[in-house]
């Protein structure tokens, strides 16, 4: 019974550590994904929220250890029945620090843009592009593809006479992945920064039974704030 209890306690601790280790990158990916098509990199408050969630998970792990001769399990509810002693770090102190950092980053993100140079240049480059005007017959899908790297930022703009179904996607081993999910929209002006080097396709579909006029333009800028492509 004693060996089984120790094994169960260690298994719980390993599970908590693994959970916190996975939660950090997962939350960062979630924050980045949530801002796709809006403004990339993600606003500071999204990243701050993911960091806060990860640190709160760390509080649970720290709560599993106590002062004493080395590190020992705290109490029975988590890692078996053990001695009641003082924590290494009070959880309320960690929680307060995390909330404080979150509030500071939230305030900074509300005052300043996380990447003003890149976004300002993207807007400037987009203004210099010449819009392409086409007419889409009923049921037709129009697609424009280009290769992007993680150092690139795609700035795009389009205006249609009626709502179109728009998405950005790429293919890996004949499997399609949506970078920006398909949605019905008439006008859009956004930026997108990819995770992977791939050929990405901007796709517009006419879902109605009448022709729709579409005007669009895009520009690609690199992390060095230099235009790599202006169509």
* Overall number of structural domains: 2
End-to-end Cα distance: 72 Å
Contiguous uncertain segments of 5+ residues: 32-41, 66-85, 111-123, 226-231
Helix content: 25-40%
- Report mean pLDDT, rounded to a whole number: 68
Shape descriptor: elongated
The Cα radius of gyration reads 25 Å
The beta-strand count equals 9
Sheet of most strands: 7 strands, antiparallel
Description:
Residues 1-20 form the signal peptide. The chain crosses the membrane at residues 44-66, 87-108. Keywords: Membrane, Signal, Transmembrane, Transmembrane helix. This protein is an alpha+beta fold and 231 residues long. The protein has two domains: 2-113, no CATH class; 118-229, GOLD domain (Jelly Rolls). It is built from five helices and nine strands. Strands 3, 4, 5, 6, 7, 8 and 9 form a seven-stranded antiparallel beta sheet that branches. A hairpin with a 2-residue loop joins β5 (152-172) and β6. α1 runs antiparallel to α2 (44-62) and α2 (44-62) runs antiparallel to α4 (91-111). The radius of gyration is 25 Å and the shape is elongated.
Short summary of the structure?
The protein is of the alpha+beta class.
List the defining traits of the structure above:
231 residues, alpha+beta, Jelly Rolls, seven-stranded antiparallel sheet, two-stranded antiparallel sheet, 5 helices, 9 strands, 34% strand, disordered C terminus, signal, transmembrane helix, membrane, transmembrane
Describe the secondary structure blueprint for this structure:
Elements: H1 2-34, H2 44-62, E1 65-66, E2 72-73, H3 76-79, H4 91-111, H5 116-128, E3 132-136, E4 141-148, E5 152-172, E6 175-192, E7 198-205, E8 212-222, E9 227-229
Antiparallel strand pairs: 1-2, 3-8, 4-7, 5-6, 5-7, 5-8, 8-9
Helix pairs in contact: 1-2, 2-4
Keywords: Membrane, Signal, Transmembrane, Transmembrane helix
Transmembrane segments: 44-66, 87-108
Signal peptide: 1-20
């Amino acid at each position: 019974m004693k060996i089984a209890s120790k094994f169960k306690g260690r298994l719980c601790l390993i599970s908590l550590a693994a959970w916190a280790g996975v939660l950090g990158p997962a939350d960062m990916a979630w924050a980045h994904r949530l801002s796709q098509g809006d403004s990339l990199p993600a606003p500071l408050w999204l990243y701050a929220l993911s960091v806060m969630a990860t640190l709160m998970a760390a509080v649970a792990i720290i709560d599993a250890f106590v002062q004493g001769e080395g590190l020992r399990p705290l109490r029975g509810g988590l890692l078996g029945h053990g001695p009641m002693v003082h924590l290494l770090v009070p959880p309320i102190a960690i929680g307060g620090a995390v909330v404080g950092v979150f509030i500071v980053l939230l305030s900074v993100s509300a005052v300043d843009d996380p990447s003003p140079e890149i976004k300002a240049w993207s807007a400037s480059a987009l203004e210099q592009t010449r819009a392409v005007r086409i007419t889409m017959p009923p049921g037709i899908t129009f697609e424009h593809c280009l290769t992007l790297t993680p150092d690139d930022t795609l700035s795009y703009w389009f205006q249609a006479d009626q709502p179109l179904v728009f998405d950005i996607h790429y293919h890996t081993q004949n499997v399609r992945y949506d970078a920006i999910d398909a949605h019905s929209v008439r006008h859009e002006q956004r930026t997108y920064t990819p995770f992977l080097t791939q050929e990405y396709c901007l796709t517009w579909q006419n879902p109605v039974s009448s022709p729709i006029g579409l005007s669009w333009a895009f520009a690609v800028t690199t992390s060095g704030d230099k235009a790599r492509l202006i169509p």
